[in-house]
Amino acid sequence: MTLEERNEALAAQIAEMALTIKDLKKSLKFKELIIESLKFDLATEEKAVVAFLRGAQLDELAEAILRGDHRREGP
Q1: Neighbours of 66 (CB within 10 A)
Q2: pTM reported for the whole predicted model
């Protein structure tokens, strides 16, 4: 194999590696977008759970008030 042939083979390998790197970058960017979407979904779910729990606490308080066995806390 001549020097020129080796250089051409190396250039082809480098071009193939560059395409692989480009594909990996696209894949990584796509995965980052998925992660951001999942973070948003999780934050939304957390807000829904908090709202549900607050609603449940208010229901318990209302029932206690109706039964007359509630206590005021604080000053």
Answers
A1: 9
A2: 0.57
- Give the pLDDT confidence of 25-55 residue by residue, as tens digits: 999 999 999 999 999 999 999 999 999 999 9
Distance separating alpha carbons of residues 15 and 24, to the nearest angstrom: 14
Q: What is the C-alpha separation between 5 and 8, in angstroms, rounded?
A: 5
**Long-range contacts: 40-46, Cβ < 8 Å, 24+?**
none
CA 32 to CA 46: how far, in whole Å?
21
SS3 label, residue 50: helix
